[in-house]
Amino acid sequence: MRVRGHPILGAVAGILLGLFVAVDLVMWKAATLTTPVLFGLPAAGLVLGLLLAVWAPLGRHGR
Amino acid sequence: MDTRRRVGGRGLRAAGACLVGVGMALGALVVGAAPAGATINQNSLGCQGQAVITPKHGAPITINANQREAHVPRSAAAPVTYQGSVSTVTHNHHGYVAVTVGPFKIHFYSWSSANRSNKTSDSGTRAYPSELADVPPGKYRVTGGHFSPQGSCTGEMTIIVDGSPLSSPIGIAAAAGTVVFAGLVLLAGLARAGSGRVFS
User: Fold this and answer.
1) Half-sphere exposure of A26 (CA within 13 A, CB side)
2) Nearest CA in chain A to B184
3) How confident is the model over B60-91, as pLDDT tens digits?
4) SS3 content of chain B, % helix, strand, coil (to 5)
5) Which residue of B lies nearest to A7 if distances are taken between CA atoms?
6) Rounded to an integer, what is the distance from CA B52 to the centroid of its chain?
7) What is the pTM of this model?
8) How buried is residue B20: exposed, middle or buried, by Cβ count under 10 Å (0-12/13-18/19+)?
9) Does B56 reach chain A within 8 Å, measured CB to CB?
10) Would the pLDDT of B186 be above 50?
């Protein structure tokens, strides 16, 4: 599989983004810190980060 | 910080009425009749109760054990008044109130008693827990239960700690972290020069 972006950065940043979004949701009173929120969002962040790294849609022009 | 507290001694805890402390608000969920839509999952003891919190600004807040959701301030102007009862005398009972964080339950209030005086109700006042001042505003799932050989009651309630998310360091850090890591995720999607690396 061709990876054009930065998969490690995408994975780590995606997990942490998911964790911070989970905390944000709790603090903005949009959700409670239940298991799906606590584990689902970091997992979704991981997938998002990896997909973006594989796809690498940004900065392709002129390269 | 260990906020777990243990109530000892006086018999009324027997009644399970003793959901005091933060429990007045949070604990009230443990003692409560169970009308339709109530948060009491199981109530073989006929538990019921309520607590009144006096916030620094605004009218007093009454929280009944059968509420699904309750707003609580981070601090109060006066001690909390509480009352609770069970329809069956319990002995050698114990109970807890805990906040749910993911798959974990963090017990922050617990009690146990032999209830040799056969009490079935309790009431009084208790200082508003100072720990709440350090709790970031937000929505929290709280569960609790009162257990004895004669039966038990359990329940849950959503507690909303009032206040702006950006009024606490954790809220500010969470917002900043979201922005930073969203940026890094975008950066991960930036094609590298001569990209064509193969991962197997």
Assistant:
1) 27
2) A13
3) 999 988 888 999 888 899 999 988 888 989 99
4) 20, 40, 40
5) B188
6) 15
7) 0.71
8) buried
9) no
10) yes
